[in-house]
Design brief:
50% of the residues lie in helices and 23% in strands. Helix 2 crosses helix 3. It is α+β, with helices and mostly antiparallel strands and 178 residues long. The protein has two domains: 89 residues, PH-domain like (Roll), CATH 2.30.29; 73 residues.
Length: 178
């Protein structure tokens, strides 16, 4: 069983990758700010409404938590998008060709038709699937992108890729759709 495909990694894929990894790698940070928002809502929003009902404590905490969480998530996504845009504007990023092959030996990645890197399945940290991409992580925060939008029949190709990944990788490392 083997999966092999060629993709062009463009600025859109880079932006989605940075947004996804920013959100994925800052879960604890987001939780901390959500809790701070809950405390802020508990003390400040409740005082603003000045209603002496117990359920207002919970509503105030929820409002505060949602406000803080929304601000933090928005900042993360906009920062990632701006970094991607700046890399393109400064000429640091150029679209490049990438070939991904997955077989019983591991994951083989060729970038720009030059050097091929091989990663045994034991070296792959995790695989994540979103609505638009697959991310194959070779370290905690470095991943290869497999964009679904460039797959011909993306449902069939995605299903094939999922099947290959499930065949060769432990289920604990996979967060992919059914």
């Amino acid at each position: 069983m083997r999966f092999e495909a060629d993709y062009t990694i463009r600025q859109e894929e880079l932006t989605r990758y940075r947004q996804f990894t920013a959100a994925d790698s800052t879960r604890a940070f987001q939780l901390l700010f959500a809790l701070l928002g809950a405390f802020w809502g508990y003390y400040e929003v409740y005082d603003f409404f000045a209603v002496e009902k117990e359920w207002m404590y919970y509503v105030s905490a929820a409002i505060g938590m949602l406000l803080f969480y929304a601000v933090i998530v928005a900042l993360l996504y906009f920062t990632a998008a701006l970094q991607s845009r700046r890399a393109v504007d400064m000429g640091k990023f150029r679209a490049y060709e990438q070939r991904i092959a997955i077989d019983h030996e591991g994951v083989h990645v060729t970038v720009k038709g030059e050097k091929t890197r091989h990663f045994a399945f034991a070296d792959i940290q995790r695989v994540r699937e979103t609505a638009s991409d697959f991310y194959i992580y070779q370290s905690k925060d470095m991943a290869f992108v497999v964009p679904k939008c460039q797959m011909g029949d993306y449902e069939m190709v995605s299903a094939q890729l999922r099947e290959v990944l499930r065949t060769f990788m432990p289920e604990a490392k996979l967060k992919i759709f059914k």
